[in-house]
Amino acid sequence: MNPTFGQRALRWAVLALGFAFLYLPIVLLVVYSFNSSRLATVWAGFSTKWYGELLRDRQMLDAAWVSLRIAFWTASAATVVGTLGAMVMTRFRRFPGKTVFGALVTAPLVMPEVIIGLSILLMLVSAGAVLGIPSKGMVAIWIAHVTLTVSFVTVVVSSRLQEMDRSLEEAAMDLGANRLKVFFLITLPIIAPALLSGWLLAFTLSLDDVVIASFVAGPDSTTLPIKIFSSVRLGVSPKINALAALLIMAVSLAAVVGWWLMYRKDKRRRHDMQLALQENG
């Protein structure tokens, strides 16, 4: 039965309300970042002065630089460790403790961040004297964020490995390639979109974290979310709106670039498969 005009209108209305609920606050935040008033929620005219004030805020810029460095190294380490974990979960046969290993890898997905932050702090305090790892600071935040994000990367890469046609790897090994060469020449290019997705996800999670970082942050390693949270507690400043608008633009640009790279790679892969089928046919 075809839906009536009223039913279609109701569906579109519900869809519009859902999108408005999700994205209208973000749009308003960006609009008010160009507000000339010192009050973040009172419009007094168009101005870009708060972007200039933000660029002159040394503490905010230092916190942003700390967060970007930690997020970059967190995403890189989590991608490597998460890929290794995904290979173990999907390519290794049953071994003693595999179920426990899988549960431990995915535990941060369901574990409250307060528990993760507290446990990592206690671990660093206990092992710091032996291993020489500081219990607070950028290294401690990096370790905590890798612990949090590696499970997300593992899940993303595992799903791609499970969908991958293993006959491609078997054909390469039949032609004389060893497992290491098969991984770098066959497996890695195919799962590259999943690796990029996992890297971006880990980067975003690290850049956004407040709870875990608050446990292990030191006086010289205040991250941007902690700085924003402490500033907002004293009242929302228009500089925070400007900073949020810049972050939204940066994340959107990164998402568009990542989508374009994955689209181009997938298009090239389909083209190569069509050429191979034509040659074999």
String of helices and strands? HHHHHHHHHHHH
Low-confidence stretches: none
Overall 3D form = globular
Radius of gyration: 24 Å
Give the tags:
mainly alpha; membrane; globular; 281 residues; 79% helix
Structure description:
Residues 64-258 form the ABC transmembrane type-1 domain. Keywords: Cell membrane, Membrane, Transmembrane, Transmembrane helix, Transport. The chain crosses the membrane at residues 12-34, 70-88, 100-133, 139-161, 182-202, 240-263. With 281 residues, this protein is mainly α. The chain has a single domain, classed as MetI-like (MetI-like fold, Orthogonal Bundle), CATH 1.10.3720. It has helices at residues 5-32, 49-55, 58-91, 98-110, 113-131, 138-163, 167-174, 179-190, 192-208, 211-216, 224-233, 238-280. Helix 1 (5-32) packs across helix 12 and helix 2 (49-55) packs across helix 12. It is globular and about 70 Å long.
What is shown here, in short?
With 281 residues, the chain is mainly α.
Give a topology summary:
Blueprint: H1 5-32, H2 49-55, H3 58-91, H4 98-110, H5 113-131, H6 138-163, H7 167-174, H8 179-190, H9 192-208, H10 211-216, H11 224-233, H12 238-280
Helix pairs in contact: 1-12, 2-12, 3-6, 3-9, 3-11, 4-6, 5-6, 6-9, 7-8, 9-12
Family: Belongs to the binding-protein-dependent transport system permease family. CysTW subfamily.
Domain ABC transmembrane type-1: 64-258
InterPro entries: Bact_Polyamine_Transport, MetI-like, MetI-like_sf, RhesusRHD
